[in-house]
Every structure is written in structure tokens, then in C-alpha cells.
Design goal:
PLL-like beta propeller domain-containing protein, PLL-like_beta-prop, seven-stranded antiparallel beta sheet, mainly beta, signal, single chain, about 240 residues, eight-stranded antiparallel beta sheet
Length: about 240
């Protein structure tokens, strides 16, 4: 078990902070600001705290209610915190599996559970969830190797979580749990992409759109309309 001192020092290598939030209850249906988790700090030579700056742009989706934060420590373990009425809890590790890059978290409103996805040191997609009884063990999804960080979105109308990533061949790949278990990875289109992906969901239409940058510098947008994945535009 890690103590607070060890956990604090592990945050020196933080690369990302993901903030999630549960939907508001009937009594708190109006949006309210819950702020954000304090940036992890370490003491300098004079004993004063020095704010630590994430190495990558934080992914911060927001819904009214309780917020959660995820980061990757210097030892590669995913760390978690959440906001209560008394402020933010101490950072705690989710298991002991080391990961690389940026973890991605989503909240499931229907079950009030949280899922977090990451890329392990072998390049595989790994997943853990918390339905209120503590975090599950990390599990591996599929056998594809990823060249970029996974990005997850949740469709509340269908109860489906989708994950997008860039494969080692540069192709945009996708998996989801719409059938009750994780599907095989599928390739979307025949474009090669680079850099981060940006998936967004439209709860009104149940359509998910993904924006990416192609290797020749253009913007690619795809969507999963009723007929399946389609190239929306390349510009």
C-alpha cells in the first residue's frame, strides 16, 4: 500500500489530468462550478511548493455534479482523485499496472460508474471501471497494438462506450461494448492519421464524430451514422 508521501512524489511525472463529473440529481439540476483538482505540487529547495505542469493538454469534460481526476504518475501507474464537499481527495493508485501516455476516462450516467482506459507498456488497450465498490482489476481489450493514446466517449442513450485510437500502421481504429462485451478492433476508412484524436458524441442523434489529422496535414472527420462509419469530410 502506498502512503501519502510516496503518492505525492509519484505525481512529479504527471502527464495528464482528466476531469469527469456525474450528472446532477434532481435537487442540483442547474449547472454549478465544482472547480478543478489542485495541480499536484512538490517542494523546492526552500520548502515552498512548486506547481507541477502537465506535459500534455488536459482532457476536461464537465457535467454538473461530482468531478473526478486521473493522471499518470512518474512510476507509470494511473492515479485517481475525486471532489467531495470538503474538497479533493488524496491521489490513490488504480492497481499497479504501468501505462504510457494519457489515460482517458468516461462516466456512465445510467449506472453511475466510471471507466478509465490507457495504453500499457506493450501498446495494448487496458481498462478498469468503478461501479461504486472500488476499482476493478485492469483488463486487456483486444490484441492490437496502439501507437497513440486511446480516447473514449460514452453514448448515454444507448449505454455504449466507444474507444478510438491510432494503430501502429497509422490507421484510425475503433472498439465498443454495444453488444455487452468489447468488439474486435475495426479500421475506420483507409486514411493514415497522426497526432491526437478528438471524438465527440451527439446525445440527440446517437451519432459519434471523430476528427483527426491525416499524415498529409488535412483534417479528417468521420461519423457513425445508421449505415455505419462514413467519411464526412477531408479538408
Amino acid at each position: 500500500m502506498r502512503n501519502t508521501t510516496k503518492l505525492g512524489s509519484a505525481l512529479v511525472g504527471m502527464t495528464v489530468l482528466v476531469v469527469l463529473a456525474a450528472p446532477a440529481t434532481a435537487e442540483e439540476d442547474a449547472p454549478r462550478s465544482v472547480g478543478g483538482p489542485a495541480v499536484p505540487q512538490q517542494a523546492g529547495p526552500d520548502g515552498k511548493l512548486i506547481p507541477q505542469t502537465p506535459q500534455e493538454r488536459p482532457d476536461t469534460p464537465y457535467l454538473p455534479g461530482v468531478a473526478e481526476g486521473f493522471s499518470r504518475g512518474a512510476d507509470g501507474v494511473v492515479l485517481h482523485t475525486f471532489a467531495t464537499g470538503a474538497g479533493w481527495t488524496p491521489w490513490t493508485p488504480i492497481g499497479d499496472r504501468p501505462v504510457v501516455g494519457t489515460p482517458s476516462g468516461v462516466h456512465q450516467p445510467a449506472t453511475r460508474s466510471t471507466e478509465v482506459f490507457a495504453r500499457d507498456t506493450e501498446g495494448r488497450l487496458v481498462h478498469a471501471d468503478n461501479a461504486g465498490e472500488g476499482w476493478s482489476e485492469w483488463s486487456v481489450i483486444g490484441d492490437r497494438r496502439l501507437a497513440g493514446d486511446p480516447l473514449a466517449v460514452h453514448q448515454p442513450n444507448t449505454g455504449t462506450t466507444e474507444v478510438f485510437a491510432r494503430g501502429v500502421d497509422g490507421r484510425l481504429i475503433h472498439t465498443d461494448d454495444s453488444a455487452g462485451e468489447w468488439s474486435e478492433w475495426t479500421v475506420i476508412g483507409d486514411w493514415t492519421v497522426t497526432g491526437p484524436l478528438t471524438p465527440v458524441k451527439d446525445a440527440r442523434t446517437d451519432v459519434t464524430e471523430v476528427t483527426a489529422r491525416t499524415t498529409d496535414g488535412r483534417v479528417l472527420r468521420v461519423e457513425n451514422a445508421a449505415a455505419g462509419w462514413a467519411i464526412w469530410s477531408v479538408s
